[in-house]
């Protein structure tokens, strides 16, 4: 795992002060207190990266954080302990009627692109309440804003890191410490994880395979060729000197995917989360999806599916860049050549053209919409930002 928030002295100090601010604003005890509300959109990991984005914005702008905990199959309290502060009930503060809404655009350039990339947030977002209704990880935009970049880098930089390290390096990681600060699984779920690891991981080199195999993602169910690609990717990730037998922990999105994995790998070489496969459309199903996520993060290495926020979160929570299965782009150092970044890691959304295994250069979640929401059209835009923070969009 990557460095945790406690190991960043400045961040730990700022968080202690922010927790006090958060409590006082929410209780109506701080005059002029301001709030960030996040209405997370989408499935589990879309919601978690959205919450992380809103939290980072709140921390940077001295605002309290409120999570609108509805519209999903379970409550935050079904999954996580409160992270040292109340994040659902607003108490005496309530929400001001004077509100600025930031919402996923349906298409085209986002109206919030210019201020998020170029403006001073404390001057531009003057309303007492700022509401994020999003499903994306916006931190790469925050990190290129000239008014806030150094603030963000300084806040999340480890004690011994040189000052010039960019966010794409592990030493400048925002997501791993922020996610571990925010998302503290219930003891019940942690105990299930620890018991499973002790019973099934011990004595093996475990590669976690995060495989989206169902019709919600691809046009056709995965073939043996596709499974073989994940298998070879896992084998290539295994140190030859480890001396431990290779086993696969498979987190997939359909019961049919589990059946196919057993058939392809052999029952003795593959394992799944405890119990029967459950859809994540009720509290227990979401809890088991979170358990799978923690087991992926606990694996010795990971192979994930391009475009999947679930795989991105597992890698980010582990603090180690994952291997990802992508399209093949001949004669290209990276996965997608400059100019066609919207292919997202060489695999268009719902593509079945899986061809090769690539070790990602970073472990933070991808911001898919970095450029498609208009980053290059910002008045302060510099291509070097896009290239530096997102490798030109080619890593996701």
Automatic annotation (TrEMBL):
Protein family (similarity comment): Belongs to the glycosyltransferase 37 family.
GO biological process: cell wall biogenesis; cell wall organization; xyloglucan biosynthetic process
PANTHER family membership: FUCOSYLTRANSFERASE 2-RELATED (PTHR31889), FUCOSYLTRANSFERASE 3 (PTHR31889:SF2)
GO cellular component: Golgi apparatus; membrane
The keyword Ubl conjugation appears for this protein: no
Protein keywords: Cell wall biogenesis/degradation, Glycoprotein, Glycosyltransferase, Transferase
Natural source organism: Neobodo designis (Flagellated protozoan)
Protein name, entry field: Fucosyltransferase
TM stretches of this protein: none
GO terms, molecular function: galactoside 2-alpha-L-fucosyltransferase activity
């Amino acid at each position: 795992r990557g460095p945790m928030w406690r190991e960043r002295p400045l961040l730990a100090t700022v968080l202690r002060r922010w927790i006090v601010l958060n409590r006082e604003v929410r209780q109506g005890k701080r005059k002029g207190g301001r709030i960030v509300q996040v209405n997370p959109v989408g499935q589990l990991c879309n919601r978690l990266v959205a919450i992380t984005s809103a939290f980072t914005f709140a921390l940077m702008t001295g605002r309290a954080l409120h999570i609108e905990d509805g519209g999903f199959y379970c409550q935050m309290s079904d999954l996580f302990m409160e992270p040292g502060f109340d994040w659902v009930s607003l108490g005496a503060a309530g929400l001001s009627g004077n509100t600025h809404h930031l919402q996923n655009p349906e298409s085209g350039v986002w109206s919030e692109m210019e201020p998020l990339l170029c403006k001073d947030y404390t001057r531009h977002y003057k309303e007492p309440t700022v509401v994020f209704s999003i499903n994306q990880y916006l931190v790469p935009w925050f990190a290129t804003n000239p008014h806030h970049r150094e603030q963000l880098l300084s806040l999340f930089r480890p004690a011994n890191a040189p000052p010039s390290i960019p966010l794409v390096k592990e030493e400048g990681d925002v997501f791993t410490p922020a996610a571990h600060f925010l998302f503290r699984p219930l003891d019940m779920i942690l105990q299930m994880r620890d018991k499973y690891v002790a019973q099934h991981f011990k004595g093996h080199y475990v590669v976690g395979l995060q495989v989206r195999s169902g019709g919600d993602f691809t046009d056709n169910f995965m073939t043996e060729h596709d499974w073989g690609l994940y298998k070879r990717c896992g084998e290539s990730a295994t140190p030859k000197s480890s001396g431990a037998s290779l086993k696969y922990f498979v987190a997939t999105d359909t019961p049919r995917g589990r059946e196919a994995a057993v058939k392809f790998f052999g029952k003795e070489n593959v394992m799944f989360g405890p119990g029967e496969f459950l859809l994540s459309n009720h509290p227990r199903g979401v809890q088991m999806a979170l358990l799978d996520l923690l087991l992926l993060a606990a694996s010795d290495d990971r192979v994930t599916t391009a475009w999947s926020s679930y795989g991105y979160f597992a890698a980010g929570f582990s603090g180690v860049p994952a291997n990802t299965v992508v399209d093949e782009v001949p004669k290209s150092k990276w996965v997608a050549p400059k100019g066609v970044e919207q292919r997202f890691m060489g695999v268009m959304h719902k593509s079945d053209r899986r061809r090769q295994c690539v070790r990602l250069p970073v472990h933070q979640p991808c911001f898919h919409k970095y450029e498609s929401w208009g980053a290059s059209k910002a008045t302060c835009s510099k291509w070097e930002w896009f290239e530096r923070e997102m490798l030109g969009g080619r890593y996701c």
